[in-house]
Amino acid sequence: MTQSLREAEFNPADVWTQHATRAVFFIGGFGAASWAPLVPLLRQRLAIGEDILGLLLLCIGIGSLLTMPLSGAAAVRLGCRKVLTFSSIAFALLLFLLSQVSDILLAIPVLLLFGAIMGCIDVVANVQAVIVEKAAGKRLMSGMHGLWSVGGFAGAGLFGVWVGGLGFTPTVSTLIATGIMVTVILFFARFLLPYGGEAGGKMLAVPKGIVAFVGVIACIAFLVEGAIMDWSGVFLTTVRGFDMSMAGTGFTVFSAAMLTMRLVGDKLVQKMGQKIIILGGSVLAFAGFLAVIFAPQAWLLYAGFFAIGVGSANVVPVFFSLLGKQKDMPIGLAVPAVSTLGYLGILMGPAAIGALAHATSLYAAFGLLAGLVALQLVIARYVYRKVL
Questions:
Q1: Using alpha carbons only, what angle is made at residue 57 by residues 55 and 61, rounded to the nearest 5 degrees?
Q2: Which DSSP symbol is given to 237?
Q3: Which end of the chain is more exposed for a tag (fewer CB within 10 A), N or C?
């Protein structure tokens, strides 16, 4: 009874609860970005080739897919606070362990656990964000997702400073990153929700009704983002003839546009309405792909990457917000169902683009991405007719 009273007295709209939710998104992005520089070091320590490394990295995706459908139910039973606090600390400790592991038989379970915890943080952070935004009565989701990107930029940038600028070893640098993550979660833990929505008495998140359509939208959005991350450099250098030193510029422009739009996205959605932002953004992203494929000049091509980033930035945050309004599934199941489909997009995207490019060309593969954005627009219009 005492626990129930404490939960009833908890205000999910409190400004510190909003900050705590942002902090968890930051931890997710920071941890993921801090792992990226450790990948070549892991390959070096294990003395393995790219083929074995690729299989090892697949363990992260498998781990995430195993926990994502169950994470919402865990939040319902234990509360977001307990799940996110434990997961964030475990995420930090596993990150440090990955900087030390030197045996492939140990690397496999550690990577599986790392992916499982990452997937859990992703799902439960979004469950918390949906509840907090609904209680606050104002747009918050885009800014929340923007903090994941901020964490990513900070994690990648600081590692370079620590190793390249200050001369720290990767072990010391990773230990500092671990300390930052643990400190942040311990400070904000008391402001996280002691509950986690409802799951309707079920454990497994299987999408149904309008949630399935939102899941397809998330899958396309993440597929596009993953494909640009992995294939834009190849497209620029092998298809458009750019110098290798310019390989990362397309993704940089795309990422900068996404981060900027997510940080201002909540205000834009409040002022213009989510339907205009999503439908108009999808049209803009489609036009961006056409510019990337057909633009005769470099500045138009980069404008295309920028347009894709601007148009795609708020798709996932807006539709996660929309899950709070649908009635087909309880929020504790709807969020993990959509997150799982979105993550499938990340896993499938690079491989699908590679297979199509091998069979035809990268022009055709990027044309497929443009077609998927157009399909996203059609599905989004259907979802809005059903929910709004």
A1: 105
A2: I
A3: N
- Burial pattern 34-70, b for ≥16 Cβ within 10 A else e, equals bbebbeeebbebbebeeeeeeebeebbbebbbebbbb
Supply the DSSP string of 363-377, one letter for each residue. HHHHHHHHHHHHHHH
pLDDT in tens, 128-163: 998 999 899 888 999 999 998 888 888 877 887 887
Residue entry with tokens 């056409």: 290
Angle at 315 between CA 267 and CA 338, to 5 degrees: 125
362: left (phi over 0), alpha (psi -120 to 50) or beta: alpha
**Inter-axis angle of helices 50-78 and 104-136, to 10 degrees?**
40
DSSP of 31-43: HHHHHTTHHHHHH
Phi, psi dihedral angles at 110 (to 5 degrees): -65, -45
Measured distance between the N- and C-terminal CA atoms of the chain, rounded to whole angstroms: 38
- The CA-atom distances, in angstroms, between 330 and each of 44, 64, 72, 127, 177 are 46, 21, 10, 11, 36
Backbone angles phi, psi at 265, to 5 degrees: -60, -40
List of residues 6+ apart from 189 with CB closer than 8 A: 20, 81, 84, 85
Distance CA 305, CA 308 (A): 5
**pLDDT tens, residue by residue, 157-211:** 788 788 777 888 888 999 999 999 999 999 999 999 998 876 554 556 678 889 9
> Considering just the CA atoms, what is the radius of gyration of the chain in Å?
20
Q: What is the pLDDT of residues 39-80, one digit of tens each?
A: 888 888 888 876 787 788 788 888 988 888 888 888 888 999
- Reply yes or no on whether the pLDDT at 27 is more than 80: yes
Calculate the CA 75 to chain-centre distance. Answer: 19
Q: Which pLDDT value is given to residue 226? A: 80
What share of the chain in percent tops pLDDT 70?
95
- Nearest to residue 182, comparing CAs of 24, 38, 32, 36? 24
Task: State the average pLDDT for the chain.
Answer: 87
Residue 244: which residues within 8 A CB-CB, separation 6 or more? 237
* Residue type for position 99: S
CA 84 – CA 297 distance, rounded (Å): 47
